[in-house]
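Sharing a chain and its predicted structure for anyone who wants a worked example. Both blocks are below, sequence first, C-alpha coordinates second.
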Amino acid sequence: MDQHPTTAYSMTQHALGTAQSPRHAPQDNDRSDVADLPLRKYEIMYLDTSGQLQEATRMARAHPAYEQAFCVLKEGAMVTAKHGYIPVEEVLPGDQLRLGDGTFETVEWRGGILMDPDHGGDSSVQPTLTRITADAMGYNRPAPDLFLGYGARILHRAAGIRRVSGSDAAFIPAADFVDGNNVLSLHPPQPYTVYQIGFAGQRNLVVNGIEVETLHPGTAFDLGLRGTALRAYLSFFPHKRAFEDFGLMNAPRLRLRDLELLD
Protein backbone atom coordinates (compact mmCIF):
# COMPACT_ATOMS: atom_id res chain seq x y z
CA MET A 1 0.00 0.00 0.00
CA ASP A 2 1.05 3.59 -0.48
CA GLN A 3 2.76 4.63 2.76
CA HIS A 4 2.61 8.38 2.17
CA PRO A 5 -1.00 9.29 1.31
CA THR A 6 -0.65 12.89 2.52
CA THR A 7 2.48 13.84 0.56
CA ALA A 8 0.60 15.00 -2.50
CA TYR A 9 -1.91 16.80 -0.31
CA SER A 10 0.74 18.92 1.39
CA MET A 11 2.33 19.77 -1.95
CA THR A 12 -1.03 20.54 -3.50
CA GLN A 13 -2.05 22.80 -0.62
CA HIS A 14 0.71 25.17 -1.63
CA ALA A 15 0.45 24.66 -5.36
CA LEU A 16 -3.31 24.98 -5.71
CA GLY A 17 -4.18 27.59 -3.17
CA THR A 18 -4.98 25.80 0.09
CA ALA A 19 -2.06 27.49 1.80
CA GLN A 20 0.10 30.52 1.19
CA SER A 21 3.83 31.02 1.71
CA PRO A 22 5.85 34.25 1.85
CA ARG A 23 8.14 32.67 -0.69
CA HIS A 24 5.27 31.76 -3.01
CA ALA A 25 6.80 31.77 -6.49
CA PRO A 26 4.69 33.39 -9.20
CA GLN A 27 6.56 31.40 -11.86
CA ASP A 28 4.73 28.29 -10.64
CA ASN A 29 1.77 29.64 -12.62
CA ASP A 30 -0.64 29.02 -9.72
CA ARG A 31 -4.11 30.50 -10.08
CA SER A 32 -5.21 32.91 -7.36
CA ASP A 33 -8.81 31.70 -7.42
CA VAL A 34 -8.22 28.00 -6.78
CA ALA A 35 -8.60 28.47 -3.02
CA ASP A 36 -12.32 28.89 -3.73
CA LEU A 37 -12.51 25.43 -5.30
CA PRO A 38 -13.78 22.58 -3.13
CA LEU A 39 -11.47 19.85 -1.92
CA ARG A 40 -11.99 16.45 -3.46
CA LYS A 41 -10.74 12.99 -2.55
CA TYR A 42 -9.07 11.21 -5.44
CA GLU A 43 -8.70 7.43 -5.20
CA ILE A 44 -5.92 5.79 -7.18
CA MET A 45 -4.72 2.24 -7.78
CA TYR A 46 -1.54 1.49 -9.67
CA LEU A 47 1.27 -0.96 -10.35
CA ASP A 48 4.54 0.01 -8.71
CA THR A 49 7.98 -0.54 -10.23
CA SER A 50 7.98 -4.15 -9.06
CA GLY A 51 4.56 -4.82 -10.59
CA GLN A 52 2.76 -4.89 -7.24
CA LEU A 53 -0.72 -3.42 -6.81
CA GLN A 54 -0.80 -0.28 -4.68
CA GLU A 55 -3.65 1.94 -3.50
CA ALA A 56 -3.62 5.54 -2.30
CA THR A 57 -5.89 8.47 -1.52
CA ARG A 58 -4.98 11.99 -2.52
CA MET A 59 -6.69 15.24 -1.56
CA ALA A 60 -6.62 18.24 -3.86
CA ARG A 61 -8.70 21.16 -5.01
CA ALA A 62 -11.21 20.52 -7.80
CA HIS A 63 -8.85 22.00 -10.39
CA PRO A 64 -9.77 21.25 -14.03
CA ALA A 65 -6.39 19.61 -14.66
CA TYR A 66 -7.17 17.01 -12.00
CA GLU A 67 -10.83 16.52 -12.67
CA GLN A 68 -10.45 16.12 -16.42
CA ALA A 69 -7.96 13.32 -15.78
CA PHE A 70 -10.43 11.47 -13.54
CA CYS A 71 -13.95 12.39 -14.74
CA VAL A 72 -14.28 10.08 -17.71
CA LEU A 73 -16.18 6.80 -17.24
CA LYS A 74 -19.22 6.68 -15.00
CA GLU A 75 -19.59 3.60 -12.85
CA GLY A 76 -21.31 0.84 -14.79
CA ALA A 77 -19.48 1.51 -18.06
CA MET A 78 -18.45 -1.84 -19.53
CA VAL A 79 -14.99 -2.73 -20.79
CA THR A 80 -13.73 -6.01 -22.22
CA ALA A 81 -11.20 -8.12 -20.35
CA LYS A 82 -9.87 -11.44 -21.61
CA HIS A 83 -12.41 -13.29 -19.49
CA GLY A 84 -15.37 -11.16 -20.61
CA TYR A 85 -17.14 -7.89 -19.92
CA ILE A 86 -16.58 -6.11 -16.60
CA PRO A 87 -17.74 -2.74 -15.24
CA VAL A 88 -15.05 -0.10 -14.96
CA GLU A 89 -15.31 0.00 -11.16
CA GLU A 90 -14.12 -3.64 -11.04
CA VAL A 91 -11.04 -3.05 -13.18
CA LEU A 92 -7.74 -3.52 -11.34
CA PRO A 93 -4.23 -2.57 -12.45
CA GLY A 94 -2.76 -5.74 -13.92
CA ASP A 95 -5.94 -6.58 -15.83
CA GLN A 96 -5.72 -6.75 -19.59
CA LEU A 97 -8.37 -4.80 -21.49
CA ARG A 98 -9.34 -4.68 -25.16
CA LEU A 99 -8.31 -1.63 -27.16
CA GLY A 100 -9.77 -0.25 -30.36
CA ASP A 101 -7.36 -2.20 -32.57
CA GLY A 102 -8.47 -5.49 -31.02
CA THR A 103 -5.35 -6.04 -28.92
CA PHE A 104 -5.27 -6.37 -25.15
CA GLU A 105 -3.02 -4.26 -22.94
CA THR A 106 -2.21 -4.27 -19.24
CA VAL A 107 -3.81 -1.61 -17.05
CA GLU A 108 -1.16 0.32 -15.07
CA TRP A 109 -3.39 2.81 -13.24
CA ARG A 110 -7.02 3.40 -12.31
CA GLY A 111 -8.34 6.59 -10.76
CA GLY A 112 -11.74 7.38 -9.31
CA ILE A 113 -13.54 10.35 -7.82
CA LEU A 114 -16.96 10.84 -6.24
CA MET A 115 -18.85 13.73 -7.81
CA ASP A 116 -21.43 15.28 -5.48
CA PRO A 117 -23.71 17.83 -7.18
CA ASP A 118 -24.68 19.25 -3.77
CA HIS A 119 -21.10 20.11 -2.86
CA GLY A 120 -19.67 21.38 -6.12
CA GLY A 121 -18.73 24.87 -4.99
CA ASP A 122 -19.58 28.04 -6.85
CA SER A 123 -16.21 28.24 -8.60
CA SER A 124 -15.88 24.60 -9.70
CA VAL A 125 -17.12 23.05 -12.90
CA GLN A 126 -20.59 21.77 -12.12
CA PRO A 127 -20.77 17.98 -12.41
CA THR A 128 -22.23 16.93 -15.73
CA LEU A 129 -22.54 13.70 -17.68
CA THR A 130 -22.87 13.05 -21.37
CA ARG A 131 -25.31 10.26 -22.18
CA ILE A 132 -24.79 8.60 -25.56
CA THR A 133 -27.89 6.54 -26.27
CA ALA A 134 -27.72 3.04 -27.72
CA ASP A 135 -26.74 2.89 -31.42
CA ALA A 136 -26.36 6.68 -31.58
CA MET A 137 -23.02 6.31 -33.40
CA GLY A 138 -23.75 3.13 -35.31
CA TYR A 139 -24.87 -0.41 -34.62
CA ASN A 140 -23.94 -1.32 -31.02
CA ARG A 141 -22.12 1.98 -30.67
CA PRO A 142 -22.78 2.18 -27.85
CA ALA A 143 -24.61 -0.80 -26.42
CA PRO A 144 -26.18 -0.13 -24.01
CA ASP A 145 -26.31 3.62 -23.28
CA LEU A 146 -22.95 5.06 -22.27
CA PHE A 147 -22.54 7.72 -19.57
CA LEU A 148 -19.33 9.74 -19.70
CA GLY A 149 -17.87 12.40 -17.42
CA TYR A 150 -17.01 15.88 -18.60
CA GLY A 151 -13.35 14.96 -19.13
CA ALA A 152 -14.16 12.18 -21.61
CA ARG A 153 -12.98 12.25 -25.21
CA ILE A 154 -14.02 9.73 -27.84
CA LEU A 155 -12.16 8.70 -30.97
CA HIS A 156 -13.77 10.22 -34.04
CA ARG A 157 -12.97 9.46 -37.66
CA ALA A 158 -13.89 11.97 -40.35
CA ALA A 159 -12.39 13.16 -43.61
CA GLY A 160 -11.81 16.65 -42.27
CA ILE A 161 -9.60 15.44 -39.44
CA ARG A 162 -6.69 14.76 -41.79
CA ARG A 163 -7.04 18.23 -43.26
CA VAL A 164 -6.81 19.76 -39.80
CA SER A 165 -4.26 17.52 -38.10
CA GLY A 166 -2.71 15.15 -40.63
CA SER A 167 -4.20 12.20 -38.72
CA ASP A 168 -7.06 9.91 -39.74
CA ALA A 169 -8.74 10.14 -36.32
CA ALA A 170 -8.81 12.47 -33.33
CA PHE A 171 -10.10 12.49 -29.77
CA ILE A 172 -12.99 14.91 -29.39
CA PRO A 173 -14.79 15.80 -26.13
CA ALA A 174 -17.91 13.69 -25.74
CA ALA A 175 -19.82 16.82 -24.76
CA ASP A 176 -19.21 18.28 -28.24
CA PHE A 177 -21.60 15.68 -29.69
CA VAL A 178 -24.56 16.70 -27.53
CA ASP A 179 -27.54 17.24 -29.85
CA GLY A 180 -30.46 17.01 -27.41
CA ASN A 181 -31.69 13.88 -29.14
CA ASN A 182 -29.28 10.95 -29.27
CA VAL A 183 -26.55 12.53 -27.17
CA LEU A 184 -27.69 14.32 -24.02
CA SER A 185 -26.14 16.49 -21.33
CA LEU A 186 -27.25 15.49 -17.85
CA HIS A 187 -26.97 17.09 -14.41
CA PRO A 188 -27.50 14.16 -12.03
CA PRO A 189 -29.18 15.10 -8.75
CA GLN A 190 -27.42 12.30 -6.83
CA PRO A 191 -23.69 11.68 -6.21
CA TYR A 192 -21.95 9.36 -8.64
CA THR A 193 -18.45 8.00 -9.18
CA VAL A 194 -16.37 8.44 -12.31
CA TYR A 195 -13.17 6.66 -13.29
CA GLN A 196 -10.29 6.74 -15.72
CA ILE A 197 -7.94 3.99 -16.87
CA GLY A 198 -4.22 4.39 -17.55
CA PHE A 199 -2.00 2.25 -19.77
CA ALA A 200 1.62 2.67 -20.85
CA GLY A 201 0.52 5.64 -22.97
CA GLN A 202 -2.49 7.21 -24.66
CA ARG A 203 -4.83 4.50 -25.91
CA ASN A 204 -8.37 4.16 -27.26
CA LEU A 205 -10.23 1.82 -24.91
CA VAL A 206 -13.41 0.11 -26.09
CA VAL A 207 -16.21 1.05 -23.66
CA ASN A 208 -19.75 -0.09 -24.48
CA GLY A 209 -18.59 -0.30 -28.10
CA ILE A 210 -17.22 3.30 -28.16
CA GLU A 211 -13.49 4.07 -28.30
CA VAL A 212 -12.68 6.35 -25.37
CA GLU A 213 -9.36 8.08 -24.71
CA THR A 214 -7.41 6.71 -21.75
CA LEU A 215 -5.19 8.63 -19.34
CA HIS A 216 -2.77 11.12 -20.87
CA PRO A 217 -2.11 14.60 -19.45
CA GLY A 218 -1.44 16.16 -22.85
CA THR A 219 1.26 18.79 -22.63
CA ALA A 220 2.38 20.72 -19.59
CA PHE A 221 1.37 23.88 -21.43
CA ASP A 222 -2.18 22.58 -21.85
CA LEU A 223 -2.42 21.78 -18.14
CA GLY A 224 -1.48 25.30 -17.16
CA LEU A 225 0.71 23.95 -14.34
CA ARG A 226 4.39 24.48 -13.70
CA GLY A 227 6.92 24.05 -10.93
CA THR A 228 5.42 22.91 -7.62
CA ALA A 229 1.93 22.66 -9.10
CA LEU A 230 3.09 20.30 -11.86
CA ARG A 231 5.02 18.12 -9.41
CA ALA A 232 1.95 17.87 -7.19
CA TYR A 233 -0.15 16.87 -10.19
CA LEU A 234 2.28 14.15 -11.23
CA SER A 235 2.17 12.63 -7.74
CA PHE A 236 -1.35 11.45 -8.58
CA PHE A 237 0.16 9.16 -11.22
CA PRO A 238 2.90 7.27 -9.34
CA HIS A 239 3.14 4.63 -12.07
CA LYS A 240 5.07 7.31 -14.02
CA ARG A 241 8.35 8.78 -12.84
CA ALA A 242 8.34 11.85 -15.05
CA PHE A 243 5.99 13.76 -17.32
CA GLU A 244 7.83 12.40 -20.36
CA ASP A 245 6.98 8.82 -19.33
CA PHE A 246 3.45 9.31 -20.65
CA GLY A 247 4.95 9.34 -24.14
CA LEU A 248 3.71 10.98 -27.30
CA MET A 249 0.01 11.15 -28.07
CA ASN A 250 -1.11 8.52 -30.59
CA ALA A 251 -3.97 10.70 -31.81
CA PRO A 252 -4.50 14.46 -31.61
CA ARG A 253 -7.20 16.23 -29.62
CA LEU A 254 -9.60 18.44 -31.51
CA ARG A 255 -12.95 20.12 -30.95
CA LEU A 256 -15.90 19.27 -33.14
CA ARG A 257 -16.15 22.92 -34.15
CA ASP A 258 -12.68 22.61 -35.72
CA LEU A 259 -14.21 20.27 -38.28
CA GLU A 260 -17.40 22.26 -38.72
CA LEU A 261 -15.32 25.24 -39.88
CA LEU A 262 -14.27 23.16 -42.90
CA ASP A 263 -17.83 22.73 -44.16
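Comments welcome. Residues 43 and 57 are 5 Å apart (CA to CA).
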